[in-house]
Design goal:
Elements lengths: L1 H9 L47 E4 L2 E4 L11 E5 L15 H5 L7 E5 H4 L4 E11 L8 E11 L4 E5 L12 E6 L21 E4 L2 E8 L1 H10 L13 H11 L8 H9 L9 H7 L3 E10 L6 E10 L4 E6 L12 E6 L32 E4 L2 E8 L1 H11 L30 H9 L10 H6 L4 E8 L11 E6 L4 E6 L10 E7 L2 E2 L4 E2 L10 E4 L2 E8 L1 H7 L11 H15 L3 H8 L6 E2 L1 H10 L6 H11 L7 E2 H8 L23 H33 L3 H12 L4 E2 L1 H10 L6 H11 L8 E2 H10 L9
Antiparallel strand pairs: 1-2, 3-4, 5-6, 5-10, 6-7, 7-8, 9-10, 11-12, 11-16, 12-13, 13-14, 15-16, 17-18, 17-24, 18-19, 19-20, 21-22, 23-24, 25-26, 27-28
Length: about 775
């Protein structure tokens, strides 16, 4: 049956003219396409497939089994072209190109294809607009304007619409449309794109029409880069209720009570229920603080007791508190006079028919002046100071300038110091003092920095015994003083046929100088003087040349050591300790800011046991600092530290940069200037991170700060002092220098006397991630 089917199909295959079709395998035979043969009963043909893998389209989403299909359940990841930064090739005058670049010199790509979620991360377009909400059953308004903010996230083309919250609006506000891809209103199945958002064009989202009126600076720059700039901003439409609310917010919540209003109320038979209510409303929470002294002569020992007098302006009451000094021996009852009105003199209320005191019989705030002595409660108080609010209140409200602070503190009596007991004889004098200062003695702490700086520095003096015996007249001694730990050792040089065993006369240690009452120092040994060491008198006869120059404070020649050998030893030591160049540089760069300053370079050399003066360390650092800017970068560090990595015969003459051993005062000034600049940069980084972290962690802080600015001034500009005061009012107090550093960082061209606080707050909110934590 199969053979008959194939023969039947061969009849329908056309053959070219003149072709030989007599037998199979001949040149005129045409290959058959068996895939087009119908599926006959009992006859099947093999299926030819290009891909034999089985696609998996079923899965679970949210606990339900679903079928995944591209275009319905998910989209293909979108890629964008990002300009590729050029490679940083190291090209020098005498350095060749890299080996791979010299051989494979191909054209570099100008763009990289990156996924949108990586290239467009945290890039958001922000638009401002409104929509009209109809209001039913109201005689004041027919519609209401609701302001909105549109956020378009470029990484995944999602849109989020929110409404800023208004205080005391009574309307649910916040998120109107959560973040997701919003379908376009034309029912074509497509979603919103950046081209659909234009200023002045209405957009419809789920049946609600929004009018776009403005956008931020980043959004305008994005559309200009895309070649479709946005139109000019449109004014936001208002409504009568919103304008009335803004008008009410500007008014003071307390209506002023004038004399005419009081006259009209009394004439109509009314009047104030509480005559002092206006004073309470205006001066509540305002307290004048005075500092006073009282000379207490009632005790056997004369005592000067400090007090604080608080005058409450809201109700003209007075409270007196006593400030107890430390170890005064008194019970801690600070309230000397409880808060109430204080009479000027003693008043006796003997009977119900006694006359009530008048307001003039009580003390007023004008009675308290700095430098005045007041008799209160039969005690005399000497007022010597007032706080800043009190001085400002007297100056601005009363027109009185208070005197400056008067010094009334008694001189402190010196505490009797017990005499230091003599050394016990065990150990050094520091060991004996440790037993005196503490019940559990600790070993004395060594000055490691002094030991490192003066390691190997020894001052040598020649001496002889004073009033020696006849057999000791020819004996000579060498006194060695070690500057690293201020220890002393006496040695007797050997002499032939002297009959005395020479060698160490006094072992190394710290010895007490009876003439000065302290341990021996380097200046206690002067030529021609006598010193008494451990019961022996010595006459100093001379000293070596190095000791004489050191005592005369003559600086050693520059450089005192071979700087070239120091550089080579430093290179070998660093390479042996750290195999990678990155680890070598991090060994010196302690603060990880990408550059090595003079202090870091000095500490790095001390780790390799190079204790050199600052001038010689500057000479070594100047060898590493190729551009002579006072700091060493990673590239300069590699250029000096690494050896050549090529073997061309024509470049065998290349050598490392020569070591400059001549002093350079200009370079020392550059080192100091670069160190000062880096310290200021560190202070700026710390101040900006500290201030920005507060506003980044608390999202409502910017709104509070904006309200403080609006309450401070009616202008659009504030000063740096007003910015500091506004931050202090909302509970965050920063130094003025840190506030000015933050303002300069956010707005480099800003004038500290005229700061646009709206622009400053916008920059403060969006520049948190612009400054890393360590550089």
């Amino acid at each position: 049956f199969e053979r008959r089917a194939v023969s039947a199909m061969a009849k329908y295959v056309p053959t070219p003219t003149g072709a030989n079709t007599r037998g199979p395998g001949t040149a005129g035979t045409t290959p058959l396409d068996l895939t087009a043969v119908p599926c006959l009963p009992g006859f099947t043909l093999p299926q030819h497939k290009e891909k034999n893998n089985k696609m998996q389209r079923w899965g679970y989403a949210g606990g339900q089994r679903v079928e995944f299909d591209e275009g319905y359940t998910h989209d293909r990841p979108r890629f964008v072209q990002v300009p590729k930064p050029p490679n940083q090739w190291r090209n020098g005058e005498e350095l060749p190109l890299s080996t791979t670049r010299a051989i494979f010199n191909t054209a570099e790509k100008e763009y990289d294809n990156l996924p949108a979620w990586e290239a467009l991360d945290k890039q958001v377009l922000r638009f401002y607009g409104y929509y009209k909400e109809p209001v039913d059953e109201s005689g004041l308004e027919n519609w209401r304007v609701r302001r909105c903010v549109f956020f378009y996230y470029l990484e995944d083309d999602t849109v989020h619409i929110g409404e800023p919250k208004v205080d005391n609006s009574g309307i649910p506000q916040g998120v109107l449309v959560r973040r997701h891809r919003i379908p376009y209103s034309d029912k074509t199945g497509r979603y919103f794109t950046p081209k659909d958002l234009r200023i002045g064009r209405p957009i419809t989202v789920y049946g609600k029409t929004f009018m776009v009126t403005d956008c931020d600076h980043f959004t305008r720059a994005y559309y200009i880069h895309e070649g479709i700039p946005q139109p000019e901003s449109m004014p936001m439409q208002g409504d009568p209720v919103l304008e009335k609310r803004l008008f009410l917010d500007k008014r003071s919540p307390h209506m002023p009570i004038t004399y005419e209003k009081r006259y009209r109320e009394v004439q109509l038979g009314g009047g104030h229920i509480n005559a002092n209510m206006q004073q309470f409303l205006e001066l509540d929470g305002k307290v004048c603080r005075f500092y006073a002294m009282m000379d207490d002569v009632t005790t056997p020992i004369f005592e000067r007791r400090p007090f604080v007098i608080l005058y409450f302006l809201a109700d003209n009451s007075v409270e007196i508190r006593e400030m107890y000094p430390n170890n005064c021996g008194r019970d801690s009852f600070p309230i000397f006079f409880r808060r109430r009105k204080l009479p000027r003199d003693k008043m006796d209320f003997g009977s119900p028919m006694a006359t009530m005191p008048k307001a003039e019989d009580y003390v007023k705030v004008t009675d308290f002046l700095v430098g005045k002595t007041m008799k209160l409660l039969k005690f005399e108080f000497h007022i010597f100071d007032a706080d800043e609010f009190t001085r400002r209140y007297f100056r601005e409200e009363l027109g009185v300038e208070l005197q400056p602070r008067i010094q009334m503190d008694l001189p402190q009596q010196p505490w009797p110091r017990r005499p230091t007991p003599p050394p016990t004889g065990y150990g050094t004098q520091e060991d004996s003092l440790a037993c005196v200062k503490s019940l559990l003695p600790k070993p004395p702490r060594k000055d490691l920095q002094k030991m490192m700086d003066n390691d190997g520095v020894i001052l040598r003096f020649t001496a002889k015994l004073r009033d020696p015996k006849p057999e000791d007249r020819e004996r000579e001694f060498v006194i060695a003083f070690y500057l690293s730990d201020d220890t002393l050792m006496i040695h007797e040089p050997p002499k032939r046929n002297s009959g005395i065993v020479q060698g160490r006369f006094l072992q190394r240690g710290k010895y007490f100088n009876e003439a000065t009452g302290k341990n021996f120092g380097p200046r206690d040994f002067q030529e021609g003087d006598g010193v008494k060491v451990s019961g022996y008198w010595f006459d100093v006869k001379g000293m070596d040349t190095y000791t004489r120059k050191w005592l005369d404070e003559e600086p050693p020649p520059y450089p005192n050591t071979d700087v070239t050998s120091v550089v080579e030893k430093l290179r070998e030591g660093v390479k042996n300790q750290r195999p990678l160049v990155r680890d070598m540089f991090r060994l010196f760069d302690q603060d990880k800011n990408g550059v090595v300053t003079f202090e870091e370079f000095k500490k790095g050399m001390q780790k390799f046991a190079f204790n050199l003066p600052d001038e010689e360390i500057q000479a070594v650092m100047r060898h590493f600092d190729l551009n002579q800017d006072g700091k060493v970068t990673y590239t300069e560090f590699c250029d000096v530290l690494l050896d050549k990595d090529w073997s061309s015969e024509m470049l065998h003459t290349h050598t490392k940069f020569p070591v400059r051993t001549t002093p350079d005062e200009q370079y020392a000034d550059k080192v100091q200037q670069s160190t000062a600049d880096l310290k200021e940069a560190q202070k700026t980084r710390s101040a900006v991170r500290q201030i920005q972290s507060v506003f980044y962690a608390h999202n409502k802080t910017l709104t509070k700060l904006l309200k403080e600015f609006v309450m401070m001034t009616t202008k659009k500009h504030v000063t740096s002092q007003q910015v500091q005061q506004a931050m202090k009012n909302i509970g965050y107090e920063f130094p003025l220098d840190d506030v000015e550093r933050c303002i300069t960082f956010v707005q480099p061209q800003a004038d500290l006397t005229q700061i646009d606080y709206v622009t400053f707050l916008q920059g403060l909110s969006v520049s948190f991630h612009d400054l890393p934590a360590n550089r």
